[in-house]
């Protein structure tokens, strides 16, 4: 007599359940932020429209634009290690135009757009997919390293009994391992699961980044988060008048919130999730009203930087067509 086997959920059903949970999480996070915004709307701090304030807001938009420039350089380096030599201007134009697609529902529009635009420039789709997969894993590795440090050092509920601030060497070791996780992971993927690697590479094994590329990409990604943290710090100190806030703490906690928005499927640009996490992490120090204002200004300046990148990329594309 055969023993009964446990029923297996069809893969489409599993995907629907996972998608439903992600949508529910996104809805809860967004509802939490909107509720706090509605309750504290009349407490939002007034912004003094001085030359310094306008200057900081302008720098905030340029800061986001600068991260797009860095992302294009990372992608060009990763493509080179896959045997594809794409000019930096072409890489920047593709990333700048496609980057705004992250605000579309599903949070994958920028990747789809990059693959389509790259194909028009002669980049094999498999190479684009492979580099984007490495880029995503690397981004998560870097942001997770920052997140671990933020959780252990700055989030009090997890701090007690876990961290000796006088001996941070093991955190540095953990962070270093996470920074190079994609570099090691590609080798493991090719050795253990070559079929998956070939599927990602559309027939070819995903080429492991060179050590020099690993160092450069890690540095550029850390610079991206440092730039975004600096933008937030400037807004907190100049726009909202909190010069006492610590730059490192703000950068690490913002990276934690950014990571939460990045990993939730369907959150366009992390919208709602990032702001909700920022509210929970920063409100004890800055107050709910200030963090609400900071979240809104940071979101608007980020969208402004992405829109500026899109406009410049589109104009460059038109200029190339007329040549």
Short structural summary:
The chain has 323 residues and is mainly alpha-helical.
Description:
By secondary structure, the protein is an all-alpha fold. The protein has one domain (49-322). It has helices at 11-39, 51-81, 88-99, 109-120, 125-154, 156-159, 169-179, 181-192, 194-200, 211-239, 247-263, 273-286, 288-322. The model is unreliable at 1-10 and 158-167 (pLDDT under 50).
Poorly predicted runs of 5 or more residues: 1-10, 158-167
Number of domain units: 1
**Rg result:** 21 Å
Q: What overall geometry do the principal axes of the alpha carbons give? A: globular
Q: Mean of the pLDDT scores?
A: 78
Number of strands: 0
Task: List its traits.
323 residues; 75% helix; 13 helices; disordered N terminus; mainly alpha
Task: Compile the SSE list and pairings.
Layout: H1 11-39, H2 51-81, H3 88-99, H4 109-120, H5 125-154, H6 156-159, H7 169-179, H8 181-192, H9 194-200, H10 211-239, H11 247-263, H12 273-286, H13 288-322
